[in-house]
């Protein structure tokens, strides 16, 4: 229900005032204020003054405890921790009280839509966003079965829902381990770039992360823990590559061809949930001469973490999230590194990135009632305002501004940051300051990337690559550079949402062919989840489903609940299959396309080189809706939007 530890509490630790002081030095005091209020009902805590501090370089504001109130709050928290009332038990607040506390936290008044979205962000329920039967669990036919493709966050999210409902399922995972993108990627220094207090399942309380931004191995361990604790692991079929799935209208089942442990097998399922994710198919560079190169070429998804770097000449092609994450580690070991940049990126600092969670902070999270819940809520609330940065202001533009006051202010802040990191190299400013607006492309977290560019063994190359040679890379200015090892940090084929599985729906139509038709503008789905004529097929992290801000895992849980509610409806109504109506699908995508035009993603400086925008010129990754609106659209499965058979 609250922030009590998940997998074991570790050794107990007695805390004196000095220890508590160190814990409070590192604490989120506004989160502590609400946690203490919830534990004591002391109304005077809500009267402590707040102040606003700048976020995004002053583009937005957040509320924190005012300086004059900090000593008072610290003293009260310390006394509570030292003299916790005997018999104290944690309780979930009712909705009226929780809504009031949310409003007090941010000194704001929530609309009903705001409240509906935020209600579960502090994760006080045992299992937020959980689908349920409307009555007693019905008897399922003996052969009723759901096939889930992929055992990453998405596959595990829907599996936990199915496990709770008692719906039989199997997860087919093509790799020998679970983890999804956190199994695929083992390149140097790979880690999350969203704080783990947002990048986690919220039905698992207070997992003992060791860093604020966990490395891939720790994320895989977390998913392993979740899968085993919630009964999912035993339902995973590893080394199982689903090649094709065809829907049989006569039986209402999907006929599946899979290669399992090297042998082709024929399977059937009533429904299929594709949870392969957006970043599962590597995009390889199409460069002349690449097959003639005698050195080693690795897409970052092919790294094992055991690559030999010491004393070698290494190239890194790409400066997206992966290329920026790995450079510092590579530079520290390689003899020379060439960094090949096609397009400058907005590369930003992120508080606590790379920092361990100190023992005092871990103790406070484990010990102070409700603090973990409010810490998570605080992390989520800080992200809400980021939506405003994506919304151009026509009046501001008419007066000479570029995007909006907030976005232009953020651009100035990021520009100052770049110049401060390259203070002694103004010759690099023009090469590294982007022309496009911040958030027109994905923001990149700085992992000492700018600092690495200043090292003697690192060269920034901005001339386009002409071709590979047998010994290295030639750029269009005619210069050749020799390398032993080339990392291609060139991202993933994000248009291949369901790849490599081929899906055929009613009348044998290929979903891949439908989505590749220029008339359709690329992949589309209703709510990012369902497609007409492909009954009982559901997509996790489908077209135009990536959220504008906040926690991706909140949306994983939300999509999973929606899909589970669809299956509940199917079973409870006694139908064989359902399919989203064509008119509903067309109307939704018409409104979606109109909404996309009002946002920053079509910024002229970024449109042609942006994984958000596909080859048809359409933004196909992000949902244009504000978080509160998208949550409302997904708040319940609507049978009226579907045809049932």
Describe this protein with a few key phrases.
single chain; 645 residues; alpha/beta; five-stranded parallel β-sheet; 19 helices; 23 strands; 31% helix; 15% strand; globular
Any overview of this molecule?
By secondary structure, the chain is α/β, with parallel strands linked by helices. Helix content is 31%, strand content 15%. The chain contains 19 helices and 23 strands. The strands form 7 sheets. Strands 5-4-3-9-21 form a 5-stranded parallel β-sheet, covered by helices on one side. The protein has a 5-stranded parallel β-sheet with strand order 10-19-11-12-15, with helices on one face. Helix 1 crosses helix 3 and helix 2 packs across helix 3. The chain is globular.
Task: Please sum up the structure shown.
The protein has 645 residues and is α/β, with parallel strands linked by helices. It is built from 19 helices and 23 strands.
Secondary structure tally, helices: 19
Alpha-beta content class: alpha/beta
Biggest beta sheet attributes: 5 strands, parallel
User: In order across it, which strands form the biggest sheet?
Assistant: 5-4-3-9-21
Low-confidence stretches: 6-12
Strand content: 15-25%
| Portion in helices | 25-40%
Based on CA atoms alone, the radius of gyration comes out at: 26 Å
Number of strands: 23
What's the end-to-end separation, in Å?
Answer: 39 Å
Summarize model confidence as the mean pLDDT: 94
The dominant shape is: globular
């Amino acid at each position: 229900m609250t922030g009590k530890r998940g997998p074991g509490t570790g050794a107990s630790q007695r805390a004196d005032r000095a220890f508590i002081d160190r814990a409070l030095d590192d604490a989120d005091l506004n989160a502590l204020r609400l946690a203490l209020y919830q534990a004591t009902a002391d109304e005077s805590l809500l009267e402590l003054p707040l102040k606003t501090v700048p976020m995004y370089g002053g583009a937005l504001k957040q509320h924190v405890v005012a300086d004059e109130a900090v000593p008072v709050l610290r003293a009260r928290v310390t006394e509570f921790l030292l003299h916790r009332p005997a018999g104290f038990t944690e309780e979930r607040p009712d909705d009226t009280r929780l809504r009031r506390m949310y409003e007090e936290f941010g000194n704001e008044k929530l609309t009903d839509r705001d409240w509906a979205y935020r209600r579960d962000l502090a994760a006080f329920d045992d299992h937020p966003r959980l689908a349920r039967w409307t009555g007693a669990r019905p008897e399922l036919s003996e052969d009723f079965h759901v096939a889930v493709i992929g055992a990453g966050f998405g596959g595990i999210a829907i599996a936990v829902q199915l496990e709770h409902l008692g719906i039989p399922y199997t997860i087919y995972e093509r790799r020998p381990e679970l983890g999804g993108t956190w199994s695929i990627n083992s390149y140097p220094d790979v880690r999350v770039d969203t704080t783990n207090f947002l990048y986690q399942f919220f039905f698992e309380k207070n997992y003992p992360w060791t860093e604020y931004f966990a490395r891939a191995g720790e994320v895989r361990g977390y998913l392993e823990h979740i899968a085993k604790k919630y009964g999912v692991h035993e339902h995973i079929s590893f080394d199982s590559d689903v090649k094709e799935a065809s829907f049989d209208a006569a039986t209402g089942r999907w006929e599946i061809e899979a290669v399992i442990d090297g042998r082709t097998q024929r399977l059937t399922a009533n429904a299929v949930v594709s949870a392969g994710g957006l970043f599962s198919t590597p995009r390889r560079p199409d460069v002349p001469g690449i097959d003639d190169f005698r050195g080693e070429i690795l897409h970052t998804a092919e790294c094992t973490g055991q690559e030999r770097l010491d004393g070698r000449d290494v190239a890194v092609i790409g400066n997206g999230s992966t290329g920026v994450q790995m450079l510092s580690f590579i530079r520290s070991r390689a003899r020379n590194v060439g960094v090949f940049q096609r397009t400058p990126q907005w590369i930003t600092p992120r508080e606590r990135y790379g920092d361990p969670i100190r023992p005092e902070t871990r103790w406070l999270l484990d010990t102070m009632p409700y603090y973990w819940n409010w810490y998570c809520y605080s992390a989520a609330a800080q992200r809400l305002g980021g939506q405003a940065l994506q919304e151009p202001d026509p009046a501001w533009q008419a007066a000479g501004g570029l995007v909006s006051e907030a976005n232009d202010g953020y651009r100035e802040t990021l520009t100052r940051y770049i110049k401060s990191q390259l203070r002694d190299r103004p010759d690099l400013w023009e090469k590294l300051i982007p022309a496009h607006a911040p958030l027109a492309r994905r923001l990149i977290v700085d992992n000492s990337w700018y600092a690495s560019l200043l090292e003697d063994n690192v060269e920034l190359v901005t001339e386009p690559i002409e071709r590979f040679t047998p010994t290295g890379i030639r750029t269009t200015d005619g210069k050749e550079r020799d390398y032993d090892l080339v990392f291609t940090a060139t991202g993933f084929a994000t248009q291949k949402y369901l790849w490599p599985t081929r899906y055929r729906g009613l009348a044998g139509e290929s979903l891949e062919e439908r989505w590749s038709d220029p008339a359709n503008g690329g992949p589309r789905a209703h709510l990012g989840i369902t497609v007409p004529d492909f009954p009982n097929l559901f997509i996790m992290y489908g077209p135009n489903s990536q959220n504008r801000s906040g926690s991706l895992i909140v949306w994983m849980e939300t999509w999973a609940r929606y899909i589970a509610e669809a299956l509940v409806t199917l079973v409870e109504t006694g139908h064989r299959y359902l399919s989203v109506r064509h008119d509903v699908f067309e109307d939704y995508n018409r409104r979606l396309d109109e909404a996309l035009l009002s946002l920053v993603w079509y910024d002229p400086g970024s449109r042609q080189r942006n994984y958000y925008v596909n080859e048809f010129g359409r933004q196909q990754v992000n949902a244009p809706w504000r978080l509160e609106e998208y949550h409302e659209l997904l708040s319940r499965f609507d049978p009226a939007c579907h045809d049932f058979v």
